[in-house]
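FW: tagging you since you asked about this chain on Friday. Here's the raw sequence from the shared folder, copied in full. Didn't touch anything.
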Amino acid sequence: MSITLSNIGEKVLLMGFFLTPFTSLRFGLVGPGEILILLAALIALISGGGVLKLDERIQILYRFWAGFLSVSVLGIVYNSFLFRAPSGRLDTLAFDSLSYIFILISIVATGSYSRNRADFSPNFFQPLFLCWSFVYVILYAVSFFAPSIFGMPLRYYHFFSPLVDNIHQAASVTCVMGFIALFLAAQSPEYLTRLFYIITAALFAMMALDSGSTKAMLGIVLGTVVSILFLIAYRKSGKGKYFLNRMFLIIITMSVLVLFSLYQGNIEGFAVQFFSENDGGGARESLYGAGFNHGLDSLLVGYGPGSHAPHANGFSDAHNTVLTIFLQSGIPGLLVFALFTARLLQKLSINFALLGVFAATGSYVLGGDILRRLPIWIIIMGTVYFAADVSIGSASSVRGASLKGTSKNRNRA
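HL: got it, structure written out here
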C-alpha cells in the first residue's frame, strides 16, 4: 500500500482513539488523544479537498447526534434568551457542548476515512480493540503489585481503575469490551487467536467486577444472559428463519410480561431494595425526581447541554443518560434517542456478542451518563461496522448457497 496523506491521517486517528480511555493523560480537558483526533480530522479535511465525506454504514450515528444537538441548541436559545429561564451552569454548558461536538467530529472523521472501504473495520477497529485488550490486561496484572504506574493510578483504593480520574470511566469500557473480545473470537479463523480473545473476554469480565461498579456488574450479567438466549434460539439460516426468529422474540417478550404480571410485587420490591442499597443515602432518588420535575418545565426543547438536575441550591449531572437527554433536549430528544436505540438494536441483533455489547451498554445508559464518553461511542461505532461486515458476509453466504443449488439443479436437469 502506498503511503498517502489519508493513510497517515487514519493511523493518527487510530492512535488518538487508543488513548481516549486513559483520562489521567489529559492536561485539563485536553490530552494527547484529543489532539491526535483533531489532527486526524484536519488531515481528512485536507485530503478530502475541504470536504468530510460521510459513510452510510454509520448513518444512524450521524442522525442521532445531528438531531440531538439541533434540539439542544434550540433549548439554549429558548430558555436562555427568549423565555429567560436559564438552567444549569455556564461551565457545564461549555464542557458538554464541546464534548458533544468533539464526539460528532470523531464520528465524521472516521466516516471520511472509511467511506467506500469494505476492509475498514478489520484494519482499524480490530487493531484498536486488540491494542486496548493488551494494554488493559497488562495494567490489570501490574495493578496487583503496584497501585500506580508513572505516577498515574491503577486502583482507587482496592478497585481497578487504570489511568482514569473516575472508576466508571474504566468500568464502562471493561464491562463491554469482554463482549467485543467474544465477537473477535467468533470471527477469528485461527485457534490460538480465538483462544486469546476468549481468555481476554474472561479477564475483561474480572476487571469489570473488580472495579466495584454495580452498573458494570449488571452489564456483565445482562450481556451474558442476552448473548446466551440469542445463541440458543436465533437461527442464522434455514427455512423459516425469519418466522422462527420473530416467534422467539415474541415468546421472550410475552414470557417477561407474564412473569412480571405474576410476580410484580416481588420484582418491584427487589428492584426498589436493590436501588436503595446502592443509592448512597437516597441521593439518586432525590436527583432523579427533581430532575424529572425540572424537565417537565421545558418539554419541547429541554435546556440545552449542561447539568440541569436541581441539587443543593444548584444543578448537578443527572447520572442517567435518558434523564440527561430529557433535560437537555426534551421529548424530541427522547424520540431521537429512542429511534437511534431501536435502529442500533436492529443492526446488532445479527450476532450474539454484539447484542451482548448492546445489553451491557444499556446498564450504563440507565444508571450513568454515556453521552459525553467518547470511548463508549468508539465502541458503539465499531460494533456498527462489525454488524455491517457480518451482514455482508451472511448475504454473500446466502447468495453462494443459492448459486450452488441452482448449479446442482441444472446438472440434474
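FW: The two ends are 47 Å apart (CA to CA).
HL: agreed, and Residues 396-410 have pLDDT under 50 and may be disordered.
FW: great, closing this out.
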